[in-house]
Specification:
Elements: H1 2-17, H2 32-48, E1 53-59, H3 63-69, E2 75-80, E3 109-118, E4 132-142, H4 153-158, E5 163-168, E6 172-173, E7 191-196, E8 199-205, H5 213-227, E9 236-238, E10 246-247, E11 253-258, E12 262-267
Parallel strand pairs: 1-9
Antiparallel strand pairs: 1-2, 3-4, 3-9, 3-10, 4-5, 4-6, 7-8, 7-11, 11-12
Helix pairs in contact: 1-2
The protein binds 2-oxoadipic acid and magnesium ion.
2-oxoadipic acid binds at residues 57, 59-60, 65, 69, 111, 140, 142, 144, 149, 156, 161-162, 240-241, 245.
């Protein structure tokens, strides 16, 4: 346990000082269960410092992501309010959101996501779909604390699945809430585009997420049940990157669109460190 606290320290320092470290598994034996304990220790510290848990993020739910990062199992990480990018749904006005500051990050990337919102607490896998009260298109900002994004599965789990930020487009209400047998919105094959400065750089179908993003939600409920945790009312679930993640650069304007769901936007600040 002492060792796990030490590993949480290493990752916390890497994040706070913007200095990537070599993978933990080069120097320490770390299995998946231990890695999740290290992840939790890191989150517990952030909560002790005033952050609030707002949901979870699924990782490696698409082949594109597994291939890009060289791993082959579904994982999860924990999201806090400090990671939320305000104004991602667009303001439509001239006084838009403050540009997103990259200067606190090591080597940020962005990837398109589908996001679920839970209208009630989920304590097991039964009928988790009926707990969803809204879905949206969104994105995730990743920032591995490991040099060159090089990690094994336990490393990336300990590093809270590279979580750094997330933005959510306009919520689309799911009106079937509370009715387990009611049909869910079909989001199984929506075209998704990630554009940088107006140029599409990645496109894919939401089918890339385990065949259907709802599968990722079920996987989240399964992982939560295994971990003895509940998914709380109001939490969000990021279903996992649909395409490979692309590097973020100062001044970049990133737009993620999904047919029928809308768009989410990320405006990066032009200042460098
Ligand atoms: C790990 C995070 C994976 C996803 O959506 O698959 C992830 C990484 O790629 O560094 O967030
Ligand atoms: Mg992701």
């Amino acid at each position: 346990m002492g060792n796990e606290a030490g590993l949480a320290d290493i990752l916390q320092q890497a994040r706070l000082t913007r200095t990537a470290v070599g993978k933990l598994t080069d120097d320490y034996p770390l299995d998946l269960a231990g890695a999740y304990r290290v992840q939790r220790l890191g989150i517990d510290r952030r909560v002790a410092d005033g952050e609030r848990i707002v949901g979870v993020k699924m990782g490696f739910t698409s082949k594109a992501k597994m291939a890009q990062m060289g791993v082959d199992d579904v994982i999860w990480g924990i999201l806090t309010d400090a990671m939320a990018v305000p104004g991602a749904a667009g303001t439509g006005g001239t006084a838009g959101p403050r540009p997103y500051d990259l200067s606190g990050l090591i080597h940020p990337k962005v990837e398109p996501e589908i996001v679920f919102r839970l209208g009630r607490r989920v304590e097991n896998t039964d009928g988790v779909e009926s707990a969803v009260d809204a879905v949206a298109v969104g994105y995730e900002v990743l920032d591995s604390r490991f040099e060159g994004y090089k990690f094994t599965l336990p490393d990336v789990v300990a590093d809270n699945a590279s979580a750094a930020g997330f933005g959510i487009g306009e919520w689309q209400a799911v009106t079937t809430q509370g009715a387990p047998a009611a049909p869910r919105p079909d989001i199984s094959d929506l075209p998704v585009t990630l554009a940088v400065d107006g140029q599409p750089v990645r496109t894919a179908s939401t089918a890339a997420i385990l065949g259907d993003p709802w599968e990722s939600l079920r996987a989240a409920a399964r992982l939560a049940t295994q971990a003895g945790l509940a998914l709380e009312a109001g939490w969000i679930v990021l279903a996992g990157g649909i395409t490979e993640a692309v590097p973020l650069t100062p001044g970049a304007v990133v737009t993620v669109t999904a047919k029928t769901l809308g768009a989410a936007e990320l405006r990066c600040a032009t200042t460098t460190r």
